[in-house]
Amino acid sequence: MVCSLLTAAALAQAPVRDPLPYENPRLSTDARVRDLLSRMTLEEKFWQLYMIPGDLDDPAHDYSHGVFGLQISTAPRPPGGEPAKVSPGDAARLHAGRINAIQRFFVEKTRLGIPIIPFDEALHGLAQPGSTVFPQAIGLAATWDPNLVSRVAGAIARETRTRGIRQVLSPVVNIADDVRWGRVEETYGEDPLLAAVMGEAFVAAFERAGIVTTPKHFVANVGEGGRDSYPVQHSDRLLAERYLPPFETAVRRAGARSIMTAYNSVDGLPATQNPRLLNGLLKGEWGFRGFVISDASATGGATVLHMTEPDTPTAAKHAYEAGLDVVFQSAYPQYRPYWNAVSRGLVSEAVIDTAVERVLRAKFDLGLFEQPYVDAGEAARWNGHVEHRTLARESARASIVLLKNEGRRLPLDILNARGAPRRLAVIGVDATEARLGGYSGPGIAPVSILEGIRQKLGSRTDVRYAAGPGRVTREFTVIPPEALASSAGDKPAQGLLGEYFDNIRLEGQPRIVRTDTRMDFRWTLNSPGRGIPFDWYSVRWTGSLTAPASGVRRLAVEGNDGYRLYLDGRLVIDNWKKQSYGLRTASVDLKPGAVAGIRLEYFESSGNARLKLLWDADVDDDGDVRIAEAAELARTSDAVVVVAGLQEGEFRDRASLGVPGRQEELILRLAATGKPVIVILIGGSAVTMTRWIDKVDAVIEAWYPGEEGGHAVADVLVGDYNPSGRLPITFPMAEGQLPLHYNHKPTGRGDDYLDLTGQPLFPFGFGLSYTSFEYSNLRIEPAQIGPAGTASVTFSIRNTGAMAGDEVAQLYVRDVLASTARPVMELRGFQRIHLRPGESREVTLPLGPEHLRMLDRNMEWIVEPGAFRVMVGASSEDIRLRGEVVVR
């Protein structure tokens, strides 16, 4: 399986010896760490600081010195194929068995027998086949129920632990204060307190189960424009007030034993190399005793992205010295520059020893030296357990937010006035796709919304479906390799012949000549090839183009200019300039099977290149037909449920927040039929709706609701469950308002625009119910406290409607007069309660130093004397009660 310094035969002949001190579980962890460290070679130490996805199947990979840990897939992928389909239990059993076998190699076949930490993603379910998928993190935040999140995390941890995985690269506790960011779905929203409370619930459940959690990405992972990993220039004050609290809570209260750094730079330094944040704050002030890992392949980013280091070994040196402990890379061979940094003495052995101590401490504390293996039968038992599936449905229902319900259109009346079944139109590809969100496994048996509605309504309602136009509108596709041909010498080849020049004028001899099969390039991080500067080159591609059976009417080039395209020697697209990014088209007439000479030329003088060669052949452009079919189905139905979805994810930030493709047009056409229209939104972030929201009857935010999402949505639609989720993010009216969050600091003048308000479409904390709640009897006791004192904020909530339901009571505070600017309001407590019709309950929330403290002008945390406005309500805008507490 793998090369090893110690063969199985040699081990079999080895004499029996007394246990070494590090093998003695009766000794303290510190004593065992010291003993083991003293026996390790420099190379063995290095490999304890290197983690990758992988297994032992490649004989060229030498793991004889050990490794920190591996991310191990459920099953090896057969050559040229997909893993065989197996039942959830078998998938879990196979996964546990593979981890056991790999663990056995490290325990039995390496010199010191140091076990690995198998790791994986588990943001809202273990990201492996056979595991239960719960609502995406933003949906869990929308429950405003840390007890429920703790139970969900406990279920995920059980499935994870029984497979032998001992570290998860979760949760994401970054603050999502710009909803254009593609990773908002992975977070707990825009508020530091909400994110901290939900993060604590998640982390504590995993750590109790003996699994290391890795809150990420330290300390911020979204910059200007809502762009992923963009540089962060936040002041120390802003970092401390807004972005650090969830991390501090995860470390100091929940006991997280690992932290992952971000890709971006923070105040000019790559996050992987920031000594002030890592050694100073995290390990110093917070007393963090765990280990710090990089994001995947992030350590070398100082060299190729941030341009702050001359080479990767130097970047590694400064990262280790700053407080990074473990380098996370995407493949085994990438270890070389990091080993070079260690073996050449660029990093002192004292620094290495300190990092290795942290890793070994975790391995001893996890009990891996005594119990490295798991019972594969337990993995099969618990992964996808019926209790977990029930919890997936419960959490999905609790996450759903009712945003609009005009005329109490919901719950749906499934019978008409004559008692006959109604006809319900369900429209949209997201009604059938059951998308689960980012960092998700495939799920066990995901229930789509259409399936959930049909199972719920059965024969009582005629449920009919139309796909509509989908989320993506395509006019062009990348020309496939089989349509392109060229020759290098006398050999014909699929694709175009590319000649790459180290200048921007296509002059002289090319530095690289190669055949490129697919004309879809993204040279954002590097150059097209060795010897070509990343920001100074030109390329000429030549060959022939063969039209498919449908013919070709238009060709196009998309990318950042400059480029030009020739067809049979004729210039058809001329964009030979450097200005921007765009799509240029040319009308052509290529009959089926026609062959034409093609030449594409491109130059780049600043780096960050993107280029595609496109045609309109084989494009499924039937959006008009699909919209018309959906509208006709709506006209012949009693009510319409349209399910609209977003396109987003890691490194998929959005410039526009409307539902993509032609879905807005679809909603407007359906509303024009005059039939009741209910819009269900599938996605992980905010949506702008000004074009259509006043034309529909109801809007539901379902997020990515997990594999039981279809049943949960159906429960809400018919009133078997009263929606009670609340928004963990602010929904703007338009992109021009962004970033927009409720807890901003006071402006120097106003906060409106010439052509738009500064107010949101839906505020933070918002959510409707099928019932109504009345707040009363606010008491703040005592009304005056000292700087270290705590007051109790007590009030009553009564269900004044006809249906049982949950209310989320929210406590906000404003410092009336402070020595530095404070937010206009800050969430300082919340509680989700269930009330029957007519039932009333008293709620008490504490208000103490941790809620009233602030950073003064000297950057010291204090509770300043003075008045604090206390606001209680149903959202950040819907304040029902107001009082005051005074600090003396």
List the SSEs and their pairings:
Elements: H1 8-13, H2 29-39, H3 42-47, E1 50-53, E2 69-71, H4 88-109, E3 119-120, H5 137-142, H6 146-162, E4 167-168, H7 192-208, E5 212-213, H8 236-243, H9 245-252, E6 258-260, E7 265-266, E8 269-270, H10 276-285, E9 291-293, H11 301-304, H12 312-322, E10 327-328, H13 336-343, H14 349-365, H15 376-382, H16 386-399, E11 401-405, E12 423-427, H17 430-433, H18 449-457, E13 462-466, E14 477-478, E15 484-488, E16 491-494, E17 496-501, E18 512-516, E19 520-523, E20 537-546, E21 552-560, E22 563-567, E23 570-575, E24 581-590, E25 595-604, E26 609-615, H19 623-635, E27 639-645, H20 663-671, E28 677-682, E29 698-701, H21 709-718, E30 773-781, E31 784-785, E32 791-799, E33 805-815, E34 826-835, E35 840-847, H22 849-852, E36 854-855, E37 861-862, E38 866-873, E39 879-887
Parallel strand pairs: 1-2, 1-10, 3-4, 4-5, 6-9, 12-13, 12-27, 27-28, 28-29, 31-39
Antiparallel strand pairs: 7-8, 11-29, 14-26, 15-16, 15-20, 17-18, 17-20, 19-26, 20-25, 21-24, 21-26, 22-23, 22-25, 30-32, 32-35, 33-34, 33-38, 36-37, 38-39
Helix pairs in contact: 2-14, 4-15, 6-7, 6-15, 6-16, 7-9, 12-13, 16-21, 18-21, 19-20
